[in-house]
Design goal:
heterodimer; A: about 375 residues; mainly alpha; two-stranded antiparallel ribbon; globular; B: alpha/beta; Rossmann fold; binds adenosine-5'-diphosphate; binds magnesium ion; membrane (chain A); transmembrane helix (chain A); branched-chain amino acid transmembrane transporter activity (chain A); transmembrane (chain A)
Chain lengths: ~375, ~280
């Protein structure tokens, strides 16, 4: 609800300020060269993509997916196989089939192909699975995650099985990650705020009501699933070219859990909530992780606490389920318009308070 | 076959509303024959038949559990019949997916209102507008340019509909925050956004105060005069039905008990027995 009273200048000023702030922070990081912070930011942007994409499906359709990390794995392995230098392929992947063995693609096309691979698999499994009712989709996607892992472990010619897939070129810069994360957030935002998004939300809110206005529930879910898997695959590709070495273990329950907690903390169905959720969870787990080797409070020394960050995540989830099930934002968005309106009202109130301190406060 | 004796008497001149039968089409808008639906042994609707012309209004009354909602669900494709045909402008509906039916020009409302609670009143209507103006890539990806103009056009038309329903001032409220009566109006506006030639209303006045239902019926009469769509209205509320519907069907335990003008129905001994003898008017809920 955008109150017409809010002056557009306010919104533009806020918007400009926010962009300047972001650009400034980006440049400072890029120039400042704090490697730890840079890595953390890249990881944040990749997690953000995973969370926004999962939310684009689960939040917008109301159907839980437990298999999204499988799409991340597909994007990671597919793009890494494509960019791996030919001489490394000869050593690490001697059994790779002919056309793949002799090529090494640049980063961008490899990423896109990784995303497309994930999207195509999503459409193939989505057509039979997405007609099921909500809970069964969750179970079926969990099955997909398990199958993906088994396939990755057994397709040794492509993945080296359980051994580490190493030597991936470190192509993922902060710029690449920021660009893709921005695009992902933009697409999710547009999807929610476009006519297509209205149909998606209608299908989620009331399937019968949606059918009565000609919305096909299955098709809506499939569109969201495909787009979501595409960006999840891209995030996997970025992640692979960030870490440069990984094994199938990276793409399993603990990552799935992490992403789901981030989404729930932010609010299912909220794009801006996903940003907040990812930020909050990463900051708190990072803080807890730094405590894991042990720490001292005054004269009290605490020994190593490995797993503290995982426990922290689990406790956070339980607290949320008890006290604020909808997460920080529910399915609402943090809107500049609303912030500008509040700011303006607050200033107005200050002014009247100064001019006439006894005047009764206007109703909010 | 009952339908044979029924069809000629109908085409010879049923009490159509003023102006509704200007063009006399060779095929009726809706033709239903032998329609039957069972739920685990319970026959919810048995061998139902109906011929409806363009622009005609039919009222369907009957006690609770008579099969009225089942009839609406069948006509709108939400459930599949166990037997019989539903032909809309000659096309058989019984094999179509539910979501394909609105595009043909059949709209419905629900006995228990089914709005989209996280959308505003306006957005609820806009969703229905996308049936005839499907979302394209431009309007999905860009909030400016030609895509935006399309969305603005949808928004303006949806707004005009809310205005017609007298709830334009509620356009930007979440639909879940509206009163029951206003939600009903949003639901009807949403159905009208499909530009239907057949509107199916399942107890549109249920849960409304008498004045509210009066107002709603006035509104429906006006909309019918302006738009000329055919209407099948299920209702409990006898005065409302008698005022709005020139032709009535009485259902009881899934069978078509009687048919005729409100006057004929009022004096039909079968109906009196079924209604007053068993559940009475207080059965309305
Ligand atoms: N989905 C269903 N499953 C089982 N029985 C149903 C279902 N829908 C309706 N019925 C039964 O069919 C009969 C007619 O119901 P309904 O059409 O809802 O009646 P009305 O709308 O006239 O009150 C009732 O006996 C009801 O219990
Ligand atoms: Mg009913």
């Amino acid at each position: 609800m955008i109150a017409p009273s809010v002056r557009r200048e306010w919104i533009w000023a806020l918007r400009g300020f926010l962009w300047l702030l972001l650009a400034g922070a980006y440049l400072a990081l890029e120039r400042g060269g704090n490697a730890y912070l840079q890595r953390l930011v890249i990881l944040f942007l990749i997690n953000l993509m995973l969370v926004v994409s999962l939310n684009l499906f689960t939040g917008f359709t109301g159907v839980f997916s437990l298999g999204h990390i499988g799409f991340m794995a597909l994007g990671a392995y597919a793009s890494a196989i494509l960019t791996l230098p030919v001489n490394l392929k000869a050593v690490n992947l001697p059994d790779l089939p002919a056309p793949l063995a002799s090529i090494a693609l640049p980063f961008f096309p490899a990423l896109i192909l990784g995303g497309l691979a994930a999207a195509i698999v999503a459409l193939l499994i989505g057509i039979p699975v997405l007609r099921l009712s909500g809970h069964f989709v969750a179970v079926a996607t969990l099955g997909f995650l398990v199958i993906t892992r088994v396939v990755l472990i057994n397709a040794e010619a492509f993945t080296r099985g359980t051994r580490t897939f190493a030597g991936v070129p470190p192509f993922t810069t902060m710029g690449w990650a920021a660009l893709w994360a921005l695009l992902n957030v933009y697409v999710a935002w547009r999807l929610k705020h476009s006519p297509l998004g209205l149909r998606l939300l209608a299908a989620r809110d009331d399937p019968w009501g949606a059918k009565s206005v000609g919305v096909s529930i299955g098709r809506m879910r499939l569109i969201a699933f495909g787009i979501s898997a595409f960006f999840t695959g891209i995030a996997g590709g970025l992640w692979a070219h960030f870490l440069t070495a990984f094994s199938p273990n990276a793409f399993y329950f603990s990552k799935t859990f992490e992403i789901i907690v981030m989404m729930i903390v932010g609010g299912m169905g909220s794009v801006t909530g996903s940003i907040l959720g990812t930020l909050l969870v990463m900051v708190s787990t990072e803080a807890l992780r730094n405590l894991e080797p042990g720490f001292a409070v005054g004269s009290l020394t605490v020994g190593p606490l490995y797993g503290l960050s995982q426990i922290g995540l689990a406790v956070l989830l339980m607290l949320l389920m008890t006290f604020r099930r909808q997460g920080l934002l529910g399915d609402r968005e943090l809107r500049l318009e609303a912030i500008a309106e509040r700011l303006e009202r607050w200033l107005e109130r200050r002014k009247t308070a100064i001019e006439a301190p006894r005047v009764r406060k206007a109703d909010p | 076959m009952k339908s044979i004796s029924f069809a000629p008497s109908h085409t010879m001149g049923h009490p159509l509303r003023e102006g509704a039968g200007i063009s006399s089409p060779s095929i009726p808008l809706l033709e239903v024959e032998g329609l039957t639906k069972r739920f685990q042994g319970v026959v919810a609707l048995r061998d139902y038949r109906l011929t409806l012309q363009e622009g005609e209004i039919l009222g369907v009354i009957g006690p609770n559990g008579a099969g009225k909602t089942t009839l609406i669900n069948l006509l709108s494709g939400f459930i599949r019949p166990d037997g019989g045909h539903i032909r809309f402008r000659g096309q058989d509906l019984t094999r179509l997916s539910t979501h394909r039916i609105p595009k043909l020009g059949i709209a419905r409302t629900f006995q228990n209102i089914r709005l989209f609670p996280s959308l505003t009143a306006l957005e609820n209507v806009m969703v229905a507008m996308t049936v005839h103006h499907p979302p394209d890539v431009l309007s999905t990806l860009f909030g400016f340019g030609p895509g935006h103009r399309r969305v603005r056009m949808l928004r303006e038309r949806a707004m005009a509909l809310l205005e017609q329903m007298g709830i334009a001032h509620l356009a930007h409220r979440p639909s879940s925050a509206l009163s029951y009566g206003d939600q009903r109006r949003v639901e009807i506006a949403r159905a009208l956004a499909l530009e239907p030639s057949l509107l199916l209303l399942d107890e549109p006045t249920a849960g409304l105060h008498p004045e509210e239902s009066e107002a709603l019926i006035d509104l429906l009469s006006r909309l019918h005069r302006e738009r000329r769509m055919a209407i099948v209205m299920v209702a409990h509320d006898m005065p409302v039905v008698m005022r709005f519907c020139p032709r009535l069907h009485v259902l009881s335990s899934g069978t078509l008990l009687a048919e005729g003008t409100p006057e004929e129905i009022r004096n039909n001994p079968l109906v009196l027995e079924a209604f007053l003898g068993r559940s009475g008017r207080s059965g309305a809920a």
